[in-house]
Structures are given as C-alpha cells and as structure tokens.
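The step that takes the researchers longest sounds almost clerical: writing a folded protein down as plain text. The outcome of that step, for a single protein, is printed below.
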Amino acid sequence: MSGKIYRRKYYDVFSKIYDRFVALHSKDTQSNIREFLANITPISRGDRVLDICTGTGTLLLYLSRKVSDRGLVIGADFSRGMLEVAKQKVQFSDNVFLVESDVAFLPFKSASFDAVTCSHAFYELKGDVQDQVLKDIVRILKPGKPFLMMEHDLPENKFVRFLLYIRFFSMGAKKAIEILKHEKEMLEKYFHSVKKVETPTGRSKVWICYKGG
C-alpha cells in the first residue's frame, strides 16, 4: 500500500473521532478556538476563502458567516471520510462548498482567494509536501492577502509531547518536529509578513502570514 493511500485510509477512519481528539488535546470542547480563528481572519462580506485540510469542516461555518451569502467558502480535503462528516455540518450553508483534493495540487486559479486557512493539520504533512503547499498557497492568494495557520503548541507535559511526536512519526511527518522549533523562519521564506497569536486556550497558536503586495 502506497504512503498516500495509507494516509487517506488513516484519515477516513480517524474522521469518526477527529472532533473529540482535537477538543481533548486543545481543551476546547465547544470549538471556541475554531471560532477564534475565524474571528481573527481578516475577511469581510463577499470575500472568497479556502480552508485546506478542512477535516470535518468545523471552521467552515464560522467563515461562512463572515463572508455572508455574497461570499464563498471552500473546504478542501483528500479524505472522503472527513468530507462526509463535513457535509453534514454545512448542508444548510449555501455559500460553502467541499472539494476532494490533494492539498499538494490545489485545483484553483492563481490570485483567486482573499484568505487561506488551515487548522491543526499542516504539521502532519510530509516535509516535501509542506514546501509544495506553501508555494501553492502563495500562488492562489491575492496580493497582500493572508494565510492563517493554527497548530497545537508543544505540550508542556513530557508524556503528552512524546505521544504527539509518535503521531508525527507514524504519519511520516518527521520534519514537523524540526518545524516546531523554527516555525517563523520557515514561514518567512514564503511570506512577506509573519506574526504569531496565542489562542484563548493556550494550547494552540495561530501564524498569520501575509503574501507580498
């Protein structure tokens, strides 16, 4: 079984418990940090937003409210299991669309989005895929527009940190551990402006990265 097929099957199965896993790790049982991410995303009515590695789509509803029915929100993921869960969440939102797509080959035109978001997923991508994704995000963003990436902070508890490392290694994402130590430097290779914002729970952080104008 190829690595990509294995990862897809892994996430298809993981979709059944994904929301509970994120809630427990981030101490966020009410999805407040997803709402926080949407709130700090600088978008307005009529904008077009892409959420990559959208998973079960929790962030999509918050984004859709900000862009209103005049805007568009697209959730992209390569796991059909994840998208099936997301489909139930967004079934009554006319401005939200789901796309089954490999994040390394985003099927969108250049300079077509006002913002791109990614929540608790980027570090699980393999190293070469991460580089390709960042290049493609820059390509599809309009000039001067942002990419917001929310990720788990390194747990203070050594055992919990060990479990996080094991998860990265099991998914073939060993480079993620190095990136955790040099996040800002890595992002500055692709974006004109990069800043870090802590989430209310203190368990996650958001990197706000602007494409050059």
Remarks:
- The mean pLDDT is 83.
- Strands lie at 48-52, 72-77, 96-100, 115-119, 146-152, 193-198, 204-210.
- The first strand starts at residue 48 and ends at 52.
- Residues 3-210 form a domain with the Rossmann fold fold (CATH 3.40.50.150).
